[in-house]
Amino acid sequence: MTPGFSPADLENVLNEAALLTARRDGKTIMMEELEEAVTKVMAGPAKKSRVVTEKERKLTAYHEAGHAVLIRNLPNSDPVHQVTIIPRGMAGGMTMFLPQEDRSYESQNHMMESLVHLLGGRAAEYVVFGTKTTGAANDIERATDLARKMVMQYGMSDRFGLMALSNASSQYLDGSAMVNCADSSAAAADEEVQKLLSTCYADAIRILQDNRTLLDDIALYLLQKETITGDELMAYINADNKT
Ligand code: ZN
Questions:
Q1: Which listed site, 14, 19, 69, 148, has its alpha carbon 20 to 30 Å from 34?
Q2: Residue 163 CA to ligand 1 centre (angstroms)
Q3: What burial class does residue 242 get, using C-beta atoms within 10 Å of its C-beta: 0-12 exposed, 13-18 middle, 19+ buried?
Q4: Ligand 1 mean position to 104 CA, how many Å?
Q5: Do residues 124 and 93 lie in contact, with contact meaning Cβ atoms separated by under 8 Å?
Q6: Tens digit of each residue's pLDDT (9 = 90 or more) over 108-157
Q7: How far is the CA of 177 from the centre of ligand 1 (A)?
């Protein structure tokens, strides 16, 4: 569950796990505590006491189910560890992946799939409730960041081809990428980013509309159980594939 973690992160995880173990008067750290500790370090502590209205729970369930349904169209995705609607940190719910390895290279296909998946939460809100909420703010930020890198750094747009328009982020500055092109190119790049995002969003909406029953089933299951494991999710998706 922890590719990409630094030694300090791992130390943090074990420390959290030890605290959780002590809280139940345990003598040995068990897998359950480790899993909770990893989630806590990645996403902040579970806020089981946070008051969530029934309407918000339903919205969150559909939002996460939206991400989850799109897994079926992500053949290159890492396996899902769990999908949950228990609030953590700033998030109302989350879909956690089990990365299989520390990946250094990403393919264009995989990045396009990631964009569709990231926009799946907002797409589900729109398909089911016809609304847009702030719950997708983090998804949108991540999707925009990825789309911008594809256009400006990775040479993946038709319009600019292999031309890099920004330099990778400098560790000496604030970490943001440095734009390295004419203002007119930067404006055109914005249009490319926007086009990429709206294409992927349209894909997400179409897939969710085509799989509405599966979306409803997973959302309902989340409302009942709050957390659904990756295996349970795949069982739903595979059963649906057969029908
Ligand atoms: Zn989301």
A1: 69
A2: 32
A3: exposed
A4: 24
A5: no
A6: 888 899 999 999 999 999 999 998 888 888 899 999 999 999 999 898 98
A7: 24
pTM (two decimals) = 0.81
Active-site residues, by number, are 64
Handedness of CA 55, 43, 36, 65 (dihedral sign): positive
Cβ–Cβ < 8 Å for 73, 208 = no
Phi and psi at residue 80, to the nearest 5°: -80, 135
**Ligand 1: distance of its center to the CA of 136 in Å?**
5
Residue in 140, 148, 147 with CA at minimum distance from that of residue 186? 148
Q: For 157-208, what is each residue's pLDDT tens digit?
A: 888 888 888 877 655 556 667 788 888 888 999 999 999 999 999 999 999 9
Whole-number Å distance, alpha carbon 151 to ligand 1 midpoint, is 23
How far is Cα 202 from Cα 200, in angstroms, rounded to an integer? 5
Q: How far is CA 140 from CA 16, 92, 116, 186, 198, in A?
A: 30, 15, 11, 20, 11
Determine the Cα–Cα distance for residues 104 and 145; give it in Å rounded to an integer. Answer: 18
Long-range contacts, 38-41 (Cβ 8 Å, 24+): 38/1, 38/2, 38/13, 39/88, 39/96, 40/16, 40/88, 41/9, 41/12, 41/13, 41/16
